[in-house]
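Purpose: get a first structural picture of the assembly so the mutagenesis plan has something to point at.
Setup: two entries, given in the order below. No constraints added.
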Amino acid sequence: MVPARFRSSFETPSKLLAAAVLAIGLGIGATPPASAQSAATTAGQQAPTGLWLTTRYPDFSAQAGKDVSVDLTLSNHGLPPQRVTFGLDGLPTGWTWEIDGGGKPVRAAIAGVDSAVDLTLKLKPPADAGADKPVAFTLSGKGDGQSLSLPLSVTLTKTEPAKLTMDPKLPALRGTAKSAFDFDVTLKNQGQEDTTVNLLSKAPDGFQVTFKEGYGSQELTSLPLKAGESKDLKVAVQPPDSTQAGQYPVEVAAAAGDISANAKLVLDITGRPTVALTGPEGRLSGDATAGQERTFTFTVQNSGSAPARDVALSATPPSGWKVAFNPEKVDDIEPGQTASVAVSMTPSQQAIAGDYMVSVRANGPGASDSANFRVTVRTSTLWGVTGLAIIGIAVLVLGFAVARYGRR
Amino acid sequence: MTGRREGSPFSGLSTVALKEAADHMNSARIHLVMLLVLLTAIGSVYAAIGQIKATIGEDQFLFLRLFTTAQEPLPSFVSFLGFLIPLVAIALGFDAINGEYSRRTLSRVLSQPIYRDALLTGKFLGGLIVIAICLLTLWLLVTGLGIVLLGLPPSGEEIARELAFLFASFVYAGVWLAVAMAFSTLVKSPATSALCALTLWLVFTVFWPMLAPLVAGAIAPVDLLDPMTAVHQIAVQQGLSRISPNVLYGEATLALLNPATRSLGLLFPSQLSGALMGAPLPLSASLGLVWPQIAGMIAALIVLFTIAYVSFQRQEIRA
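Result (structure tokens, whole complex):
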């Protein structure tokens, strides 16, 4: 009865696809009355003739607590239109079922000649349905003198609880208050559902925490995570510049609904010297006479969080100028302390009256500052004296003339 | 000849000076010259104010711009003064002594208990008084015009700089007065002495700027292989041009009225490295800068007066 090629596939080891073929075979071939089958089938013909009720996966598993839907196909080959009324047997108590066709519940369907009707079987298990136990039932169809039957089996499985993990690659970083602290964090959704996670952080006051994609520059506040997906995030923490040396914990978290994952990050901030250079009495200007040395007292202040060592002083004077420092190098300035440096400037002999700019720098390892010092150059009063001398000579000449020729 | 007489050689000096000043004040010659100066000065300042209003938004030394801003076709106020002050001084002094000769009044004056010293000095001082009054009037007029038309009072430093400028103008006028008086004693005819003084004025005003480079080129030729010779030539040229009181006065006014002026001579780029260009100099530095110019003019004034004095003392006046 069954075509030879069907039989050969029947003999193959049981597989899902084979089971579907089996369902066809059972639905049609296993019914006892021969009349249930379409009589037109002949061994010589290639295309089988008949009425079938099929599904792709007759034995499947579904998530517990959710409705189950099974796609069905009622197909008719070579027969006049057939009306089929559906029924379902063998469901445990508490289960309800319904067959939908064309978007509405149906109780019967008609398959036209050489056509198929798509149907959906919807099952609603009770809330207390036991999991991990196969539930077998049979979908039956009663037509004009023929009976179709489709045994199905569903196994309810427990859903995996949604779970997020957050793993920093390097949880502790060390640097100065001005360094960039970039933590690489892998966020993974280990549940079975897609979700959207919010990114949260808890950091000491003044610390700025931003989330970025692993290789992106956009800042994130939340991101979608598909089931089983993992994403690399970059957590950039920017401590305030004035942060004192020490260890600072930063907690970052990802939350989706009532589940969350968190990771503890640690910033190990090392101290950093900051030097500031100021001129005499806070001013950045002074007077000097061309060709004559003048000493200004500069102040180097360390406003950082670590001692400043080996702060060397240098200057960029105009050409012909001499600038000397005493001392030339300040060995050690503790945080919050100041050091005085005597800066002796000798303007060039040829310097013209007016303002010149002398750039003074303090350079230490990791800290430097510069100040533009404005020197008002006064030219020597020698020419003033010379002018007076010339006038004096003229007056002497006049005096001589008066003495020689006067009172005539 | 050298009979020693009693009394101060300068008795009657103030009488002569005040009488001389009063005579000048009443003479039509001075009225005419001063009218010319006043008109040109007011014209140039008025034009400068228009220019300032149209172009300058903000300036620390707005008032000083009144003196230095030129609007085509008029030159600036200081250029006018540099040009016209000698004319006023020459008009005041060209016939100071030889005019008395030609009017035959000298022996009459000297028959009074007045020495020659007092007569010459008094005439010179009288001319200086007139010039001082004229310049002060002109200065007040310009400053007042500036306050009225700009609607701003001048700052303290501006006033100090303007006073220094007034003093420089006064010394400059004194030099030309001494020149005119020296010619009036050296030359017998008033017309000739006027012509001599005017010739000198023309030479220094018009021809000296052309002559100085020419003479400098002859004295210090440039060797193309030695760049320092070019520097030397420029130095010689500058020294020559500074013989002219006009140049000295021009440099003095430039440094006084333009506070950003830092040097009046040749500058090498090395002297300018690190210099803040455009920053105004303090007043004391500007005064130090122009002091050689002013000292030179004062010395020239004294030397010229000495020449006039010696010449006058040695003259035969019983005519």
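Chain A touches chain B through 40 residues (CB under 8 Å).
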